[in-house]
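User: Once you have settled down, look closely at the record that follows, taking as long as you need, and be ready to discuss the fold:
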Amino acid sequence: MADMKMEAEIVFEPHVPRALQRALEYAGDEGFVASMPALLHARTNAPYDNIIWNTWFTSYSEESVVTTPQGNRVVVAIHGGGIFATPERYEQVYRASVDRSNPDGFTGQYAAKISQKEAHDALEGRLSDGTEVPVYPFEEFRQGISNLPIRFGVILDLELARQSKRGYEEFETLKDDPNMIVRAGGVEANIAYLDKYRDRHKTKLMGNWHPYNRIDVDQPQTRMPFLAGNQGGIYSEGDYPEEQNEQDQHELFTVGGWRAVAVPGLEGNWDPEKPRMYVVSVGFEGSKTLRLVSRAEPDNVAVLLPDPGVKPEYVERTLKNNQRLIEKFRISDESLVRASAGDAIGAWKALYSASLNNNADHNLYYVCCGTKPHSLALALHALASGYPAVLYIVPDRHRVVDTRALGVYWRFDVRDVTSLGRK
């Protein structure tokens, strides 16, 4: 038999349905989109300088919390495409009303709501694209499955899943962790990956998160686990064009409407009893930022302002374009958090120094509408704090803008000491 050469492609696309569509088209009939076990297996067999260790992935896996017909609450993990095997099923959630009572949208913690029929079909391995896959009880799966297919499911008792520690844990403990075993594709695969991960930086702990102690278990819901891994990045300061017409004022970088989507793993700890506070990084497209925030109807709003800007006049331009937002939500000077446009670490520190840092009594949302370094700052602050949600913007489409680099670069080296991201 001739040797088979594996060919892989990474799809970079902020809108998950489009990303999945592109991945499925690339894979074709003979390939597959990588599930969490496939990603961890690839890392186990790749050198540390390979990109698979140094970027983030949304896996083609899903974890659903459902109630069986017998009344038992379980986690149904399906790898290789399950309820959300198709881009169309994703779009149904993304385009649903943001009203929390909508049965087709997101939960308060940005899990996807699913129907009772979808939940019961998943228990039986009957999937939305018409295929059927084997589904194994966890105890059987733990003993090992010979010739495990690419596409399969595992049923794990919810109470057992809840016993896993949410956060950083020692490697020997993770080797016996039910959630890790399911995500890795078995006991042996889990051990192999954890040993490889431990040896990368000689670390003693690894991060592994799950949501099962902070959700409404009566609502059938699905989450897609993601795999973290960052080496760092570079941000270039640029000279942006002046606003020449009405379109430039409202659509300098994007065309059409905006939708806010939670970063996988940073959906926050939503509590229906608490008020909502939005912390918004702002840029030139103030009218779209205003519409986005207004639709959410938050109780309080604070702003992360790029001050000083890349150029001195950019601060005045940003304030002018966001003046209606500031006025509508009565944002005080104390709630205007100022940090250099290109300094992610300075912005992170500014968020900690601001009085809004003491808002654990709110449902806190960080909304990334400004510079890339400020978006990074919001994400780092959320990771460190543990409770805010981070929302990124998906426009109808992007607009090509002629931007001249100013020759000033910011480099951020982020060494990730976690593996499986927050859920």
The mean pLDDT is 85. The two ends are 42 Å apart (CA to CA). The chain is about 30% helix and 25% strand.
